[in-house]
Design a protein that fits this description.
single chain, mainly beta, 8-stranded mixed beta sheet, 56 strands, about 10% helix, flat
């Protein structure tokens, strides 16, 4: 051993220090499984590095400790370790290799870590070249190890050791090149070299076993004396910039502490100790971490670490992180890091400044079934006179928190937490997909929603799992534009049933102050008896989550209904009435004048009136619908998926309507323009035709009297395209036909006289016969799964914890089911991506290994996908 005046070494060969985090590269074999290191001189250090994930065994269970190490091997090993310490490759490392003898076609792993070691200054190459396949000499190994230590500790070990008076153990130092002598001296001084071996052999090659020993000793050496002296200043305060942090396993988390010192004192160089303790876990399984870091000139110290899945069987973990000035351990600050679990709140409605009375929708995403509390940041820890009282939640209850903070009761007007003791919170329970929507509305107020975990109690704490939303301001200024347009014919069919609604369509369009669509905003639709009649039989029809919703007015004086704008700022609805000769005039408005209810000062728009009467023969029209077997509109169909062509009778505004007078024959002319035959079935699943590739066929089906539609079903064995033209026969109307005529009657509406058509049976008019039109549609059959692609973010060859389904168009998450596990029988939890309902993420509990399958049920078909070693999926 070097003859040193003091002992400067501290080796821990069996475990890495707190700065050594597990590598993202999973070893091929664990240390316990290596078959060729037992009794080897380097066994202890090989075990330490393999278990830490810094160096790997081979797939056959060996380590090959005597194999010569190449320069590319060293680059990868040092690069992996530096990556765990927060060093990153250049952003263009793939397109601009770090060394001249590497190309863009070089193995990506080598490109990445070559950039890491080059950017950090640890490995500079030879005349700009890496010389990847050359063995690395022992003297060059010494150089790069000392450079790494200098980089990580921000010191110059060569300069420090050169000033020391010590007798070195290495006797052949003169054989090394000049640059290497100082590096070898550093390894000698800190006993990283073997004190019992006189010669270092600088020109010799390095074996895998030798490098494992040198690297592990360098990682764990305490370079005492070389580091700059610590400040003796005692801080007066320490705080952590974040009180709670959420992260996924395997990602790096950086905890930042800031110290405050007395006036005139320097905040630089103050040692800060970070300790990390995992709550409620076995400390033998979950490492408890401790690290000392010095502050910079601004008094800031940062500590970065990570956790892996292996530390938790529940897929989640919670770390208590404490920071304190090393010189004053009683001065502490705390934060909590949540691994593998998250809570988010995102905007659904765009815009941060809204008109008074409008509504902003937020989406909460977290653990399915979890109970959460929602409050306003502005109302936390304030006196009652400082609270924002003119904003509130809708869609969830706001309740008073009872003593003990474990329950809520009653109905509070707004959320708050007073310094005088009282509190109230909004309460929400996340659905099976881990989602919940909340609505915030207000007047002349600015609030910031905060959601936090409340499974055990409702008391707010800065270290609880939580998320803060964007702020929203409600003000009196008109910041929205609102219009209402009528569609279709003004004289509409009357309401008969939920299947034959009749009525007229309307579209409300809402824009923000910049003229952009105001999405996911609630708009109120109003009718009153000055511009509408027979209100108690009026029907209001809209679509909610893909399903038809029909509401009926209850008052003869006025009626109000609500709709929500879509991503384009549009809200669609249909107005109908079951009473013949009724009429209705809708007005849409936003209650934003600060006065509850509808008033003339609210933002509003009124559209054209609609009249409702019995449908006549000449009002009927033809329509053709192309759907899957579940009735969902679709034009592209996958393997073994059926396309359904439906001929339907509709009224003058395109609403389904049956005809009871006579049956109607419909000729379906099918033209196959692809390369695969198409089979055609009737409603009873009987094969009625086969259309050959490139051929055509015609089948006749009868729309029975009283029916609304008639269908044929088709499928194909492979990729092809099928065009269908439906030609109805006009029903025969025997003899001359008369029907009640229309009489124009004056009606005063909003102070103006208008002439309203009303049926008058005493004044018959000749009714023309049917003149049904020809309609067509085309279905495309593909050879694979339709309309979506299945991917995963997992690295090739590893277990996938989530899969992502990307659809070609918007989809309702409830229409998709993902199965996994043995026999693909377990239903996966899933959720749509925020503000993007074309993407669904499914959680695979326990992970999906290479070769295992998932099944996706969608649009009437079930498809099986096999997870491949390259991280992709193949369809069966």
């Amino acid at each position: 051993m070097a003859n040193q005046p003091k002992k400067y070494t501290k080796f821990v060969a069996t475990a890495a220090t707190a700065t050594l985090v597990a590598s993202a590269i999973v070893p091929v074999a664990s240390a316990a499984e290596l078959s060729d290191i037992k009794g080897n001189t380097h066994e202890e250090h090989i075990n330490a590095l393999v278990d830490a994930g810094v160096i790997n065994g081979y797939p056959d269970g060996t380590f090959k400790p005597n194999k010569t190490l190449t320069r590319s091997d060293v680059v990868k090993l040092l690069g992996k370790y530096l990556e765990t310490q927060g060093y990153e490759p250049a952003g263009n490392y793939k397109t601009s290799p770090a060394f001249a003898d590497l190309t863009t076609k070089t193995n990506e792993e080598l490109l990445k870590y070559a950039s890491v070691v080059k950017e950090s200054g640890v490995f500079v190459g030879s005349n700009g070249n890496l010389k990847a396949g050359d063995p690395i000499t022992r003297e060059n190994m010494a150089i790069v190890l000392v450079r790494m230590a200098n980089t990580l500790h921000d010191i110059s070990l060569e300069e420090f050791v050169a000033e020391q008076d010590f007798n070195g153990d290495v006797k052949d130092l003169a054989q090394a090149k000049a640059e290497a002598r100082t590096a070898i001296a550093v390894l000698d001084y800190y006993d990283i070299t073997n004190p019992t071996v006189a010669n270092f052999n600088p020109k010799g090659d390095t074996t895998r076993g030798q490098f494992a020993t040198f690297l592990n000793k360098t990682i764990n050496a305490e370079f005492s004396g070389a580091e700059q002296g610590a400040s003796e200043v005692v801080p007066t305060k320490i705080e952590l910039t974040e009180k709670n942090i959420q992260s996924a396993f395997g990602e790096k988390v950086t905890v930042t502490a800031k110290v405050t010192v007395a006036d005139g004192e320097s905040a630089e160089g103050i040692p800060v100790t970070f300790t990390v303790d995992a709550e409620g876990t076995d400390t033998l399984l979950v490492p408890q971490l401790k690290e000392e870091v010095k502050t910079n000139a601004e008094g800031i110290a940062t500590y970065t670490y990570t956790r892996e899945h292996k530390y938790s069987t529940s897929k989640s973990l919670m770390d208590d992180v404490t920071a304190y000035p090393t010189i004053k351990p009683t001065l502490k600050a705390n934060t909590v890091v949540y691994w593998g679990t998250s809570l988010k709140i995102t905007d659904v409605t765009e815009g941060s400044t809204l008109a008074n009375g409008t509504k902003k929708v937020y989406k909460i995403t977290g653990t399915p079934g979890a109970r959460v509390a929602v409050t306003f940041a502005e109302n936390q820890n304030v006196t009652p006179d400082k609270a924002v009282t003119t904003a509130k939640f809708e869609g969830i209850p706001t309740q008073y928190v009872t003593s003990g903070d474990t329950a809520t009761t009653g109905s509070a007007p707004f959320p708050y937490s007073y310094t005088t003791g009282g509190s109230a919170v909004g309460v929400a329970v996340l659905d099976v997909n881990g989602n919940a929507n909340i609505v915030v509305t207000g007047s002349n107020a600015t609030v910031t929603p905060v959601v936090y975990e409340a499974n055990t109690n409702f008391k707010y704490s800065a270290t609880k799992l939580q998320a803060k939303a964007s702020s929203v301001t409600f003000q009196a200024t008109q910041v929205l534009g609102l219009t209402l347009a009528a569609e279709g014919k003004q004289v509409a069919a009357n309401f008969l049933s939920s299947n034959e609604t009749g009525g007229r369509d309307y579209v409300a369009t809402l824009t923000d102050g910049n003229g952009k669509p105001a999405a996911n905003t609630v708009v109120t639709v109003r009718f009153d008896n000055t511009s509408s009649n027979n209100l108690q039989t009026l029907r209001f029809i809209k679509t909610v989550n893909g399903n038809k919703s029909i509401e009926q007015a209850t008052s003869a004086d006025s009626a109000t209904f609500t709709v929500v704008t879509d991503k384009d700022g549009k809200a669609r609805f249909t107005v109908a009435n079951s009473v013949v000769d009724s009429y209705a005039t809708p007005t849409v408005y936003i209650d934003n004048d600060g006065v509850a209810g509808f008033s003339k000062n609210d933002l509003q728009s009124t559209s054209e009136i609609a009249y409702f009467t019995n449908i006549r023969n000449n009002d009927y029209q033809s329509a053709i619908q192309l759907t899957n077997t579940a009735g969902k509109a679709q034009t592209s169909f996958g393997k073994n998926e059926d396309a359904v062509f439906t001929y339907a009778l509709v009224d003058q505004n395109g609403k389904a309507r049956s005809y009871t007078g006579a049956s109607i024959d419909v000729a379906f002319q099918l033209t196959n323009t692809g390369a695969q035959p198409v089979t055609v079935y009737d409603a009873n699943n009987n094969v009625i035709a086969t259309v050959a590739a490139g051929g055509n066929a015609t089948v006749k089906q009868t729309l029975a009297a009283g029916a609304r539609s008639v269908s044929i079903r088709t499928d194909a064995a492979g990729a092809t395209s099928l065009n269908v033209i439906a030609t109805p026969t006009n029903p025969v109307i025997p003899g001359s036909t008369t029907a009640p005529g229309y009489t124009l009657v004056p009606v005063v509406i909003n102070g103006q006289t208008v002439w309203v058509p009303q049926t008058n049976s005493s004044t018959p008019s000749y009714e023309v016969g049917f003149n049904l039109n020809q309609v067509s549609a085309t279905a495309t059959f593909t050879s694979g799964a339709p309309n979506y692609v299945v991917t995963t973010s997992a690295a090739a060859g590893t277990t996938a914890d989530t899969v992502t389904l990307t659809f070609t168009s918007a989809v309702n998450v409830n229409d998709v089911t993902v199965y996994f596990g043995p026999d693909a029988a377990t239903v996966a939890q899933k959720q749509t991506e925020p503000n993007n309902n074309t993407v669904i993420h499914a959680t695979i509990v326990g992970g999906l290994a290479v070769g295992q399958t998932i099944k996706v049920s969608y649009a009437g078909g079930v498809y099986t996908f096999v997870y491949q070693a390259d991280g992709t999926f193949d369809i069966q």
